[in-house]
Amino acid sequence: MVSSEFADRPLKKLVLFDVDGTLSLARQAASPEMIQLLKNLRKKVVIGFVGGSDLVKISEQLSVHGCNAVEDFDFAFAENGLTAYKLGKSLPSQTFIKFLGEEKYKPLVNFILHYVADLDIPIKRGTFVEFRNGMINVSPLGRNATIAERNEFEAYDKIHGIRAAFVKVLQEKFADYGLTFAIGGKISFDVFPHGWDKTYALKHVEQEGFEEIHFFGDKTYEGGNDYEIFTDPRTIGHSVSNPEETAKLLKEMFQI
Ligand code: M1P
């Protein structure tokens, strides 16, 4: 039985979305058309997003065109659900540093910063390690790069495999840390405890009694940060290449 909080929705289904590449272009705002489509969808089903980024960044992308990312989605999951809201109210959360402890974190971050310092790549900017609530995000380019610099790094990385090589070294060196290294976006990778991938968000919804939980994502291939939730037996996964494809599928599936 789905909770009475969602009694106004004719379909007892939950539809979850990745953000970058699924609802909007990476690190960019969702279009007015996408926001309107989500409003229409919410009249029929329960909706939520599951992003890898922190809530501030996701809000920059989804709190646009009159939408509020926390209030206009029934479930708002940032950092894979480590920061979680249901109907605008926050749910209990965990932290990366509590899981790992300072004494294990310090050698990890020191090693990462040394590795970045020794990397010979065309350009570097700043913020190579972003410390978040539920994970750290590591970028060889640096997070405060421009959109053009991000795209250039992505193209360079496709040829030179900078992130893949970095991840391999970390997986070997810190094999006993219980950490997952996931390449989700264009310039960085996320580091979080095993199981704190996007399936973490499902812990918050599995007792709600939905008849179906759909998930839409673009990084659904093995190694991508949508892979685990896309292949999870609790979800019906939909792989998309861009927001336009998400919109097309939603219109077909839900007649909106
Ligand atoms: O949502 C996908 C990823 O988006 C960003 O990645 P990048 O800056 O590399 O494009 C990051 O916020 C990352 O944490 C997230 O997984």
UniProtKB/TrEMBL annotation:
<feature type="binding site">
    <location>
        <position position="143"/>
    </location>
    <ligand>
        <name>alpha-D-mannose 1-phosphate</name>
    </ligand>
</feature>
<dbReference type="InterPro" id="IPR023214">
    <property type="entry name" value="HAD_sf"/>
</dbReference>
<dbReference type="InterPro" id="IPR036412">
    <property type="entry name" value="HAD-like_sf"/>
</dbReference>
<feature type="binding site">
    <location>
        <position position="188"/>
    </location>
    <ligand>
        <name>alpha-D-mannose 1-phosphate</name>
    </ligand>
</feature>
<feature type="active site" description="Nucleophile">
    <location>
        <position position="18"/>
    </location>
</feature>
<dbReference type="GO" id="GO:0006487">
    <property type="term" value="P:protein N-linked glycosylation"/>
</dbReference>
<dbReference type="InterPro" id="IPR006379">
    <property type="entry name" value="HAD-SF_hydro_IIB"/>
</dbReference>
<feature type="binding site">
    <location>
        <position position="27"/>
    </location>
    <ligand>
        <name>alpha-D-mannose 1-phosphate</name>
    </ligand>
</feature>
<feature type="binding site">
    <location>
        <position position="20"/>
    </location>
    <ligand>
        <name>Mg(2+) 1</name>
    </ligand>
</feature>
<feature type="binding site">
    <location>
        <position position="18"/>
    </location>
    <ligand>
        <name>Mg(2+) 1</name>
    </ligand>
</feature>
<feature type="binding site">
    <location>
        <position position="132"/>
    </location>
    <ligand>
        <name>alpha-D-mannose 1-phosphate</name>
    </ligand>
</feature>
<dbReference type="GO" id="GO:0006013">
    <property type="term" value="P:mannose metabolic process"/>
</dbReference>
<keyword id="KW-0963">Cytoplasm</keyword>
<feature type="binding site">
    <location>
        <position position="230"/>
    </location>
    <ligand>
        <name>Mg(2+) 2</name>
    </ligand>
</feature>
<comment type="function">
    <text>Involved in the synthesis of the GDP-mannose and dolichol-phosphate-mannose required for a number of critical mannosyl transfer reactions.</text>
</comment>
<feature type="binding site">
    <location>
        <position position="232"/>
    </location>
    <ligand>
        <name>Mg(2+) 2</name>
    </ligand>
</feature>
<dbReference type="GO" id="GO:0046872">
    <property type="term" value="F:metal ion binding"/>
</dbReference>
<keyword id="KW-0479">Metal-binding</keyword>
<keyword id="KW-0460">Magnesium</keyword>
<dbReference type="GO" id="GO:0004615">
    <property type="term" value="F:phosphomannomutase activity"/>
</dbReference>
<dbReference type="GO" id="GO:0005829">
    <property type="term" value="C:cytosol"/>
</dbReference>
<protein>
    <recommendedName>
        <fullName>Phosphomannomutase</fullName>
        <ecNumber>5.4.2.8</ecNumber>
    </recommendedName>
</protein>
<dbReference type="InterPro" id="IPR005002">
    <property type="entry name" value="PMM"/>
</dbReference>
<keyword id="KW-0413">Isomerase</keyword>
<comment type="similarity">
    <text>Belongs to the eukaryotic PMM family.</text>
</comment>
<feature type="binding site">
    <location>
        <position position="235"/>
    </location>
    <ligand>
        <name>Mg(2+) 2</name>
    </ligand>
</feature>
<comment type="pathway">
    <text>Nucleotide-sugar biosynthesis; GDP-alpha-D-mannose biosynthesis; alpha-D-mannose 1-phosphate from D-fructose 6-phosphate: step 2/2.</text>
</comment>
<dbReference type="Pfam" id="PF03332">
    <property type="entry name" value="PMM"/>
</dbReference>
<feature type="active site" description="Proton donor/acceptor">
    <location>
        <position position="20"/>
    </location>
</feature>
<dbReference type="InterPro" id="IPR043169">
    <property type="entry name" value="PMM_cap"/>
</dbReference>
<feature type="binding site">
    <location>
        <position position="150"/>
    </location>
    <ligand>
        <name>alpha-D-mannose 1-phosphate</name>
    </ligand>
</feature>
<feature type="binding site">
    <location>
        <position position="190"/>
    </location>
    <ligand>
        <name>alpha-D-mannose 1-phosphate</name>
    </ligand>
</feature>
<comment type="subunit">
    <text>Homodimer.</text>
</comment>
<feature type="binding site">
    <location>
        <position position="218"/>
    </location>
    <ligand>
        <name>Mg(2+) 1</name>
    </ligand>
</feature>
<dbReference type="GO" id="GO:0009298">
    <property type="term" value="P:GDP-mannose biosynthetic process"/>
</dbReference>
